[in-house]
């Protein structure tokens, strides 16, 4: 189990680097587009489309890394106020729901990608890239995100990580402290 968690984490780190590279390339493509359009006064054909596809791919491919590093935005008020046992139940329920959602969307994305591959879809633009290459980031990213969710859940269930990354001493007490009530 430890090897699975470490392996998935290693793959997630690679996806994070790939996403960062895609964002860098998209930035360079936009800079090229601005130069060609406004300095050379020429039209652009492929730059806008490629930059958009790279940014979308970065979101899907980089999502396992974001989950692994807890870089996503989530509301932790309820887990902070909960007792450790309740926090564990909330963590398991949220992992299961997230996993089922990601698996469903990954499965549908694989079907969509396969259709684009078999029917050799292209965009309707002058550049006309093959859409299977564009769509591939969706099923790959969501499949890897599903694996990262399993690794995160296993880490919580085996005690390697606390639920929601919250140690017991970080929990908040609901209500006012006794000295606040007595002192007023």
Can you offer a commentary on this structure?
This protein is mostly helical and 184 residues long. The protein has one domain (2-182). It is 71% helix and 0% strand. It has 7 helices and no strands. The chain has helices at residues 2-39, 47-68, 77-81, 84-118, 131-135, 137-157, 178-182. Helix 1 (2-39) packs antiparallel against helix 2 and helix 1 (2-39) packs antiparallel against helix 6 (137-157). It is elongated and about 65 Å long. The model is unreliable at 174-184 (pLDDT under 50). One of its GO terms (cellular component) is plasma membrane. One of its GO terms (biological process) is C4-dicarboxylate transport. This is TRAP transporter small permease protein.
Number of DSSP E strands = 0
Q: What average pLDDT do the residues reach?
A: 89
Q: How many helical stretches?
A: 7
Q: Name the shape in a single word.
A: elongated
- Largest sheet descriptor: none
Gap from first CA to last CA: 54 Å
Helix amount: over 70%
**Total domain units:** 1
Please mark out the parts with pLDDT under 50 across 5 or more consecutive residues, or reply none: 174-184
As a percent range, the share of strand residues is: under 5%
**Structure class:** mainly alpha
Order of helices and strands: HHHHHHH
Radius of gyration: 22 Å
